[in-house]
Amino acid sequence: MIIDSPKDNHHDDVTKFVNHELSVDLDSSNAFEGPEKLLEIWFAPDKELVPSSGSIEGLRSVPRAEWEEMLDIVKCKVLSTLSSPEMDAYLLSESSMFVFPHKLILKTCGTTTTLIGIPKILELAAQYAGFTDKQPWRVFYSRKAFMFPEMQLHPHGSWDDEVKYLNGVFDNGGSYLVGNLRADHWHLFTTDPAFEHVPTHVDCAFQDETMEVLMTHLSPQHAAQFFTNRLPGAEKFHRETDYCGDDSVSISSGSTEASNDPGHDLGSLVTKYAKIDKIYPGVAQSIDSFGFTPCGYSCNAIVNNDHYFTIHVTPEAQCSYASFETNVPAAKYGMTNLEVLARVVNIFRPGRFSLTLFEATGSPKKGGLSKKTAGIDGYKRTDRILYEFDGYDLVFVSFEAI
């Protein structure tokens, strides 16, 4: 785990758990489908609205063993977790899960059956957090087109089947195809709010933003950063990489030989080598990362205790793919989403990539992407679409290397 600690001690509140038995034996030789299925369930607009009938911790009160049972249904395992006073970040064998008191984000790749886990999620939310209403406040499910759709398990074999499944569980859902069907495109299912949200403070509008960058055809030179085997690759990384002189980044005291394993150790090295820890420079962050054998990489980061970013990389040339997702409000830290996007793209230099930015209509529009989409050096824009949903604005943009 890497800690970036500029001028505060937010990271002192972050704790880590590692599943050694799974982490040591994990092999990515059969991984193939990089594009993730992204499920986001909001049981309430904010943590202040967690029902009094449940734990004040809301969804965070669900024991890890119960989440692991749900993830077994989805067909993935927990590698490690990070916990702050505000949220829990689960690094999975197939991507990530983030748990807040009032919402859950589940992002899984490969042949996972993400939607099949929904009934168990609703059951746990009712049992431990008191969310007993049949309909959560809002639900979002999205993905880009699969590279190998024929390998997916039901109901993920087609978008129509996924929408049919979701409509069987949730009311007031809508399905959208965003982008050119013959090029980079993106599928979205979203529900209308189940109830009207009245902010607890008169001047406090609902604020939320999520930026996702989906990249394919990675530059071979940049993809090579994610091919190092754990052993003896980790030793090779140590010999060839010099990290001296960087006082803003240190290995946390919890990331010792006794608490870690080769996969997590290699992940930490790749995080620094690829400058993933510099995407949000000068911001307090804890990064939990894993390097797969023979290749591949995943990381979760808790930023300033209450926000996250996550990266997942499948670097094989025949199906190269990387994703970046964040809900960090860039403007809060004196930067724009466009600057963050440029740093991410420079890590991978993809041949093609698409960006989606969801912003609540009450969020400050200072991210540098909502009003217009400026260019990225070395890329031309191939598509730009704006959507207005109930309470949210969506920007979808696709790019191609020049």
UniProtKB/TrEMBL annotation:
It is an enzyme of class 4 (lyase). Gene3D superfamilies: S-adenosylmethionine decarboxylase. One of its GO terms (biological process) is spermine biosynthetic process. The modification Pyruvic acid (Ser) is found at S95. The keyword Oxidoreductase does not apply. The active site is at S95, C109, S298, H312. Pathway: Amine and polyamine biosynthesis; S-adenosylmethioninamine biosynthesis; S-adenosylmethioninamine from S-adenosyl-L-methionine: step 1/1. The keyword Cell cycle does not apply. The record marks E94, S95 as: Cleavage (non-hydrolytic). Coiled coil: none annotated. Its cofactor is pyruvate. Its EC number is 4.1.1.50. One of its GO terms (cellular component) is cytosol. Substrate binds at F32, E94, F292, E316. GO terms for molecular function: adenosylmethionine decarboxylase activity. Pfam families: SAM_decarbox. Keywords: Autocatalytic cleavage, Decarboxylase, Lyase, Polyamine biosynthesis, Pyruvate, S-adenosyl-L-methionine, Schiff base, Spermidine biosynthesis, Zymogen. Belongs to the eukaryotic AdoMetDC family. This is adenosylmethionine decarboxylase. It comes from Geotrichum candidum.
